Amino acid sequence: MFSVSPPRSRLLLAALSLLVTRLSCSSLSVSDIPHIASFFGTKTRYEEVNPHLLRDISSVNRSVLKPPPTEGCTPVHLTAVIRHGSRFPTAKNIRRIQRLSELVRTEASRNSADWLQEIQGRWEMWYTEDMDGQLVMKGREDLRQLAKRLYVLFPSLLSEENLRRINLRSSSKHRCVSSVEAFQEGLQDAWRRGEVQYSHEVDDELMRFFERCRGFVEGVENNRTALIEVEKFKHGDEMDGVRRRLAEKLGLSHHRLTPELVEAAFFLCSYELSIKSVHSPWCFLFDEKDAKVLEYKSDLKQYWKRSHGHAISSMSSCPLFHHVFRTLDKAGRPRRATDEPPEPASILVGHAETLLPLLSLLGLYKDQTPPTASNYHSQHGRSFRSSLIVPYAANVLFVLYDCQRGPRLQLLVNESPVRFPGLENEDAPLYRDVRAVYRHLLDGCDFEKECEGRSVGRAPNIEL
Ligand SMILES: *[C@@H]1O[C@H](CO)[C@@H](O)[C@H](O)[C@H]1NC(C)=O
Ligand SMILES: *[C@@H]1O[C@H](CO)[C@@H](O)[C@H](O)[C@H]1NC(C)=O
To answer: With CB atoms counted within 10 Å of each terminal CB, which end of the chain scores lower, N or C?
Structure first.
């Protein structure tokens, strides 16, 4: 215990102080939640998307499963693509938070606002760089509770008898491995097993396809022009307005408060909520109007980097797409009584960067007008809101049912039904109809060709 290296012991201390915080203010009453909590983009808590969980974290709405009631359907397979739970900021964001807190402590005015006094007096910079993106206790809990709710929804698939037949895979990142472990703890807890046994595989080809796709890395990730809308918005009128309002509240000159520091303050509010369940004094810097602008900035980044903005971003998820459909094909295939029963469930744990390209490839959350730096004011009703799509512990569930007329497939995102584009009048269409909608992808969507295939003479930006 005492031989742990300094960074680890600091982590341990942080963890202990979290425990104390959690014990002393076990949960925020609903009115204590910052009014901007549902605009944190990928740093949004899962509870903000499903507020009924704030009252009861184990509540499950069984009517989200909607196969046609007259066809005697039973679920035969679940594929769940899940994002890791709440985590510490990355080292880069911790350095920004550090700079921000120093600036506010040393240069901000000493006015009488309570929250500013609190920031300058009692608030302590407690983040250290070694926390770098690791899963926090609340994040473990996110996955444990999700597993328990999924067990209630799919008792026959996630049953104890199926222990060895449930396929579990994870990205190699620490926060994902911890998440897939927590998921198993949740299941085994639901089964009331004493000792938890872990069995999962690390699979970056499936869960971190984005960093292996050269067309994406070169054409989008490392290409400044590909993300030009984000840069423009960052320095545009709306963001400038937020900067000015913040600078005024802090009594700082406008040029001292860069867009990065504005974002750091916003994220600080989000981290204190998602890690410690506290309403941080930093939250008072923003009103809802500011939060919406900052959310839009994040959405622009996700849209142009990970989603419909460039076709290669979604095409990079072809390996995952094919994996999911191969698994569903196998599970839905007619079989004789003597055949092996199908795999009951496939649990795949990754990142927001894993889920967004896949959802985009499936054609979801695609608004008519792409969000840009100049159309903020016409985008209020957009469906592409990362706060709602990829909060911590976000999940995409493919539920295959065995029904009288053949297998049916239902899609749920964050435990709510979502309809397949092109099959909008049914919650659980026939599986063969879903396959027909995605025929072009099932027959193509070739990772080698899309991601590496410069020689084929195709531009990375092919039309989907
Ligand atoms: C349960 O889910 C159904 C289907 O999505 C929805 O219509 C209903 O409002 C939900 N009920 C509750 C209590 O959230
Ligand atoms: C960078 O992005 C722009 C805009 O999407 C594109 O036209 C250009 O070909 C990309 N450059 C590379 C090297 O892929």
So the answer is: N
